[in-house]
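Subject: Sanity check before I submit

Could someone independently write out the structure tokens for this chain? I want to compare against mine line by line before I put it in a report. The sequence has 225 residues.
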Amino acid sequence: MSLAVVPAVLPPVLDLAGTAVFALTGALLAARLRQTFVTMAFFALITGVGGGSLRDMLIGTPAFWTQNPWVAPVIFATALIAWFTPRRWWEGELLEWADAAGLAAFAVLGTAKALAFGVAPVPAMVMGVITGCAGGVIRDVIAGEPSIIMRPELYVTAAALAAAVTVLGSALALSDALVWGTAWIAGFSLRGAAIRWKLALPAYDDRSGKQGGDDVGDDAGETRG
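---
Independent answer below. Compare away.
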């Protein structure tokens, strides 16, 4: 099977900026846990490249950051900046909105790359979601923190929307620029709405009260806030 030439979904500077945003979230988690700089740099790395690396492994192509000489230096520079600045500078809604932009962009990037390598539409959507979310999941698991996919407000759903629009636009043979731009706007808008109005999917509610003879009624009415 010949490998497709993958077009750039994002301008290189914006692609690196998105990677830096994700890396910063990893570095800040390590800072909140009062870790060393080595740990901070490690968390920045796995958060910045984790999703794309997993996607590339599943597709069967070299990890993207081993082919781009700028990715690792940008990530480690981000860790240095986080190390030498107060954590309060970075936390809050500004970082949330920057993360939303990166999430949507990388969901589009991951989906487009998967399609370019001949992955079927639905698995390509999954690759897009993995690209946008897996780095944060790996970060949280290693840190022993509640996973990012357990957030009450919409997060993975926003990545899935961006990926779905990318697949739909590709199936309709629309121009790449139109498809990618529309997909990014859709994903970013949904995540932004979730940030602004705390939108969330309904939580599972087991109304049976009992299951297999065990009393599970105590938890039936609990949902995540």
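---
OP: Matches mine. For the report I'm noting this point. The two ends are 48 Å apart (CA to CA).
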